[in-house]
Amino acid sequence: MLEWAVGRIPRRVNESDNGITIIDRFGRLIFNHSSFGTLSDQVSPPALGKPFLNLPDGISEASIIAAIPANFICTDIQLIELDGTVNGASLILKDKAVAARPAFSAKRSALPSIAVGRAGLQIVGRSEAILAALDMANSLLDTSAPTLIQGPTGVGKALFARLIHAGRTTSNIQPFAPINCASLTREMLEADLAPFDAGSDMPPDPTNGTLCNLLVFDEIGELPFALQPLLLRLLENTAMLASNDMQKQSSPRILSLTNRRLTDEVAAGMFRADLYYRLGVIVLEIPPLRDRGEDVLLIFEHYNRLLSLQSGLEPLTLGADVEQALMAYDWPGNVRELRNAVLSIHFKAKSRDVSLSDLPFKRAGAATDDRSAYFTMPIPKDTQSKSLKDAELVMIESALRAHRGNLSKTAIALGISRPTLYRKMHSHGICFSNID
Predict the structure, then answer these.
(1) How far apart (Å, rounded) are the C-alpha atoms in residues 297 and 353?
(2) What is the per-residue pLDDT for 242?
(3) What is the reported pLDDT for 44?
(4) Rounded to an integer, what distance in angstroms lies between the CA atom of residue 246 and that of residue 286?
(5) CATH for 289-358, among 3.60.40.10, 3.30.930.10, 3.30.300.20, 1.10.8.60?
(6) Tens digit of pLDDT for each residue in 53-72?
(7) CATH fold label, 2-99
């Protein structure tokens, strides 16, 4: 019966406030782990082989529930059936005295994490990839060099920016307030630029957010090409102000976040090289979740605990098969996708013990990047009388226009990779300014 139970025990029995107990069909104790003694000073563990539950009507889930001692809560029962006969049961027990404590007491093992500021945010993990990124981020706390934080969507770039912001001795001057470059208009950027203009009558004011100790440009790779010279001038004038002794204390630290690889964007003519060199004096690379190994399970448990505290529901428990599926999955949406997966499972799962059918992706280990879900470009009519090279040029330009310069969507529509698209754009001399 013990062999039967191996692999079917939920992960939460490893916590100090739960335990597994195995009884035979007569209610005698044949195995016990952490159910007694460590949970309550009032409980004495019975000897193995001695009666634990009184089952006069035979073993069943109903008879077990009726016989559970008053000082215990049973959270899981699995009847052990061998050769068609129920020979016993495995029980997950929790001491009522412990159950009355807060859901996550000090006894609960802490997850490896770094606190970010005072907002309760955390960067969770212990993989070599994330520790290397954290080490570099910590080394940047004492420098004012412009820093480019890059990594795929959903990896937590904003958390690293917050970490750097929180570590600055003057961070209390200004709240963390990123500027979303994807939604900037010329008017908005010019309004921010005015205090730095040589011909402007508006003096820099370090209290109104225009000139502050930290400027964070989110989605810098989405900044329209036509607005990039304005931002470059803003940064150059800021540096000029910093050289003035009277204004030196107001010189801001520049952090820029992007999910694009800007060196590729520069090569494709989509991003100004001089602006890139201004922003990327230091480049901090945040690793994708697929490169972080068992951090997947740690982050799952982090959000699992948070949701349990917020909802009042029992935490989810994972079997070995579910853990393997989570580890095997590619997580194209990274930590953000994992957080949403925990949220979905937490409120939709039929049981606190998660099964493979509860997982929100198509199948264990399968990526969700379905190219057929995207719009595929038809062949433009005016390519029929052109050479192959000219036809390719027309198709690429047509796809770029259709997707408003979004290179990821353009590459998918053309059925090629982004690097291939970059090479073809370079060979045809296509740059952002050529796209209407």
Answers:
(1) 15
(2) 52
(3) 56
(4) 36
(5) 1.10.8.60
(6) 888 888 888 788 888 887 77
(7) Beta-Lactamase (3.30.450)
Per the listing, tokens 């796809």 go with 399
Task: Give the whole-angstrom CA distance, residue 185 versus residue 188.
Answer: 5
How far from 107 is each of 76, 96, 102, 310, CA to CA, in Å? 22, 16, 11, 19
Q: Distance of CA 111 to CAs 106, 163, 264, 305, 326, Å?
A: 12, 18, 37, 10, 18
Q: What is the pLDDT of residues 289-309, one digit of tens each?
A: 999 999 999 999 999 998 888
Residue 391 CA: distances (Å) to CA of 169, 268, 386: 57, 19, 6
Angle at alpha carbon of residue 293, lines to 291 and 296, rounded to 5°:
105
Compute the distance between CA of residue 185 and CA of residue 90 in angstroms, rounded to an integer. 63
Alpha helices in 56-212 (DSSP H): 61-67, 96-99, 128-139, 157-167, 186-193
Compute the C-alpha angle 156/169/278, nearest 5°. Answer: 60
Separation of alpha carbons 132 and 273, rounded Å: 28
Q: Per-residue DSSP letters for 83-128?
A: TTEEEEEEEEEEEHHHHTS-TT-TTSPPPPEEEETTTTEEEE---H
The answer to whether residues 358 and 323 touch, using CB atoms and an 8 Å cutoff, is no
From the number of C-beta atoms within 10 Å of its C-beta (0-12, 13-18, 19+), residue 125 rates as buried
Question: Which of helix, strand or coil describes residue 257?
Answer: strand
- Cβ neighbours for 313, distance < 8 A, ≥ 6 positions apart: 307, 346, 352
Query: Band of the pLDDT at 360, cuts 50, 70, 90?
Result: confident
Q: Which two tokens stand for residue 373?
A: 């879900």
Question: Across residues 277-282, what is the average pLDDT?
Answer: 93
DSSP-derived letter for residue 220 is G
CA-nearest of 126, 109, 124, 129 to 17 is 109
Can you name the CATH fold of 372-434?
Arc Repressor Mutant, subunit A (1.10.10)
Overall average pLDDT of the 200-208 stretch: 45
Span 25-53, pLDDT tens digits: 898 888 876 544 434 444 555 678 888 88
Mean pLDDT calculated for residue range 84-99: 75
Distance between CA atoms of residues 74 and 20, nearest Å: 10
Identity of the amino acid at 5 = A
